[in-house]
Amino acid sequence: MRRVVVTGMGAITPLGHTAQETWAAMAEGKNGITTITRFDASAFKATVAGEVKDFDPLKYMEKGEVRRNDLYTQYALAAAEEAVADSGVIGTVESQRLGVYIGSGIGGLQTTLKEHEKMMTENKTKLSPFLIPMMITNMASGAVSIRYKAEGPTLPVVTACATSSHTIGEAFRAIRHGYADAIIAGGSEATICPFAFAGFIGAMALTSNPDPATACVPFDARRSGFVMGEGAVIMVLEEYERAKARGAHIYAEVTGYDNTADAYHITAPEPEAKGITNCIKNALQEAGATVGADTYVNAHGTSTELNDKTETLGFKKAFGDAAYDVAISSTKSMTGHMLGAAGAVEALACIGALENGIAPPTINYQEPDPECDLDYTPNVAARRDFKLAVSTSLGFGGHNACLVLQKIDG
């Protein structure tokens, strides 16, 4: 089995326009959640979001490319540009051995709505020739592969909130088993719009708390629903020996991954946490790792009643008594829930923890919940010499993902 490492990272998030800005803000416990500015949300029960602020796509692409790509693809191209430049991988790997695994939970929703409105209000029967390429959920992966001439394994993943944990995990497997030497992997989402808010409110998923400082409170007894976020995080995964030989900076090693299903409900997690428990156990077994005081866990931690208590139960079942020793946090308390990009931004947090010995905090934590009684790194970052990091993701439809990353040991 070949070893797989991360050699490049890029990010466009509510906390910053680079991976470094995003990590620094996480470590400091900065809140990227604000009252919505993208549209007038005064008529909605949910009025806060983790918006990407001041994004200028022209910094990353020409005007024509902007017109041909939905915002979610623009975010992906921008984050990929940073990750690829950071890794220095282009020109060192054959195009047929370079792949792209970038997913999205929803895809080009804003383009779809804009063109549909044209049809309904202007009675048009001919819409933009770019409508279909802009709306489909594989286009971020396709656009990045075109930009970098990546002719190897290239596909999206669409597993709701678990999407980009799965893209990173499946990229890990493809490299580990010899199907590629390097893969650009991650997720992107851009769904902060009235239609998406109305839908998630209808599903009773979003919080109605209007205060950005207390709206997203994972594992806190006051939690009342998630806060929508947006953005993209992209990583370059690479076979270890070639990365080492070319002198690449190695952020961390990916050593375990699993993908399971609850097979229970379209939105609610299975109450006994069987799916996520097995997912964590299997990923740790593949990694040959044991959790303890040197472990950082980035939880899915959505600030919903069911997710947080179920995930806590899963940690207890998977880790045993060591569940009380690990440092856990939910960085969604700062970014909001970036949907298809959530797993990737949380993998970025894991890498930051391993590299810097810092567990980012779960901010705004005030009222303990008896069913959520682990160490969630409340409000202030914790410093430890972390050797192991675990990231969990749970998606609508019962999709579970777990990534295990380790500090590189040479």
Total DSSP E strands = 14
- Approximately how much beta-strand content do the residues carry? 15-25%
**Can you list the strand order of the major beta sheet?**
5-4-6-7-1-8-14-13-9-10
Helix/sheet category: alpha/beta
Can you give a write-up of this model?
The chain has two domains: 4-245, Thiolase/Chalcone synthase (Peroxisomal Thiolase, Chain A, domain 1, 3-Layer(aba) Sandwich), CATH 3.40.47.10; 255-406, 3-Layer(aba) Sandwich (Peroxisomal Thiolase, Chain A, domain 1), CATH 3.40.47.10. It is globular. The protein is built from 13 helices and 14 strands. The strands form three sheets. A ten-stranded mixed sheet has the order 5-4-6-7-1-8-14-13-9-10, sandwiched between helices. Strands 2-3 form a two-stranded antiparallel ribbon. The protein has a two-stranded antiparallel ribbon with strand order 11-12. The protein has 410 residues and is an alpha/beta fold.
Provide a compact summary of the structure:
By secondary structure, the chain is α/β, with parallel strands linked by helices.
